[in-house]
Queue: 3 jobs
Job 1
Amino acid sequence: MKSSRTLDAGIYTCKARNKYGEAVSTCKVTIKKQEKVDGSFRPEALPKIKELEDKNVPEIDEKPVDFEPPMFLENLNNQEINEGETAVFTTRLVGGVLLLF
């Protein structure tokens, strides 16, 4: 979630489904209101944000599992960020298709 706003705060859910079942992981995102200074929240943070967004996520060499329900290996984590910052959601699972909402 780039350039978060206070109305982005809430509960986020990630579901994984396959023909054998479903797994759900949720997290709470809290966004603290930030006053703008000179038209920007934190311009000095922009290079670091770009670096984090450009990072390549390593591929995991796991074969699809289609004979059991999906299972989260890592759940989503609650986040508390300042308005204008970026929230990053990461998780790992086996055996399903991800849906984030």
Job 2
Amino acid sequence: MSYILPNNVTHPIWKLIGVILDEGDPGVSIAFGEWDDEYALVSRWNNPKDPRGFPANAWFVIPKMLHRSTLASLSINLDLRIDREALKQAIAELCKE
């Protein structure tokens, strides 16, 4: 059973800017975009038993206090399939002070 690609996961208040990580099935996806008109970092599990993933056909928002540590971990891990341009853009927007 194949999973729903992160680019195809939609929500009425979600606007995808870029998928930072898609580990495939099974695995996790992390993306950057706008949630309710604010920049956000989101994640979901790609579930081999349910192609809708978890949460089903949706994303969960990673709390702001975890943005820097999540992005830092992604930036130093060379083994993951990471879209470096999406990662740079997320860092630029989410780590502003």
Job 3
Amino acid sequence: MISNRIRHSNNNLRNKSLNAQNILTFLNLKCRLKLLIDNTWVTNLAQFVVDSVKTNAIRFTMDMQLSLERFNIDGHYAMDGVVANLFPLYGSGDY
């Protein structure tokens, strides 16, 4: 569970039920981090440009290269953890 210093720093998170679907946990010897990502909106993702298409009729395969000129990702995050067992890493806000 994300610590109280993050959950209570934003009223939107205070009453939010935290479940495995919206919390990412990173654990290894040098880093321990819990990250909540919520209310994420991705826009302009369908506005891509097809740069190249290669097909192989014998293998029934197709390789495509696409590029995105501009797309936006907006949402809210809250995180709590420690890096290198020395540096606390915590905060919340919009991205």
